[in-house]
TrEMBL record:
Residues 117-183 form the Dockerin domain. GO terms for molecular function: hydrolase activity, hydrolyzing O-glycosyl compounds. The lineage of its organism: Bacteria, Bacillati, Bacillota, Clostridia, Eubacteriales. CDD domains: Dockerin_II. It comes from Pseudobacteroides cellulosolvens ATCC 35603 = DSM 2933. One of its GO terms (biological process) is polysaccharide catabolic process. InterPro entries: CarboxyPept-like_regulatory, Dockerin_1_rpt, Dockerin_dom, Dockerin_dom_sf, EF_Hand_1_Ca_BS. Residues 10-37 are annotated as: Disordered. This is Dockerin domain-containing protein. Residues 20-37 have a biased composition (Low complexity).
Length: 183
């Protein structure tokens, strides 16, 4: 009778009909993982003095030397293995050093505290030569102390707070030299 009612009246039968439900098992698909990147590199060294800028030419990597003369450039990308390290400070001849970090090393020290890198005093106008132009610049501020408004710290090579004969002698020792004299 259930079939009769269902066919003629549209009422559902009291006998439940089972319909199988098909469920699929989740499939695990491996996703590619990135290869761990090589570790970042660093370079450090010592210069004779504080406040020198060490920079990797053509990049934004740089550091300043501390009161001990130590500079340290960290976070260098692994692909940068050969470069020019430029060391500079106002009043000094800029020095360029060709550097190669071996592929099996993450860090490189180019100088130590007992053998710091030296720069030549006297390049007041930063034209990479110590000449009469530099003598004239330092002569204009000769005998001025750090409290004077015209004092030029770049001319006080020994950082004693006064531009005096000690500074002139330092310039005179390097007179006529250029950046090529570092070679």
């Amino acid at each position: 009778m259930d079939a009769f009612l269902e066919a003629n009246v549209g009422l559902p039968s009291s006998t439940p009909t089972l319909k199988p439900t098909i469920t699929s098992s989740p499939t695990v698909t491996p996703s590619p993982t990135s290869t761990p990147s090589a570790s970042l590199r660093s370079i450090n060294g010592y210069v004779k003095g504080e406040g020198f800028k060490a920079e990797i030419e053509g990049t934004n990597y740089s550091a300043s030397s501390d009161f001990k003369g130590l500079f340290e450039i960290n976070g260098i990308t692994p692909s940068l293995t050969e470069f020019t390290l430029k060391i500079s400070k106002p009043g000094f001849l800029t020095r360029n050093i060709n550097v190669k970090i071996p592929s099996d090393r993450l860090s490189l020290s180019i100088s130590g505290p007992n053998s710091p890198i030296g720069l030549m005093e006297g390049d007041m106008n930063n034209n990479q030569v110590i000449n009469m132009e530099d003598v004239i610049i330092i002569a204009k501020v000769f005998s001025l102390t750090s409290s004077h408004t015209l004092y030029n710290a770049a001319a006080d090579f020994n950082n004693d707070g006064i531009i005096n004969m000690s500074d002139i002698i330092m310039l005179a020792k390097n007179f006529g030299k250029t950046y090529l004299d570092y070679q």
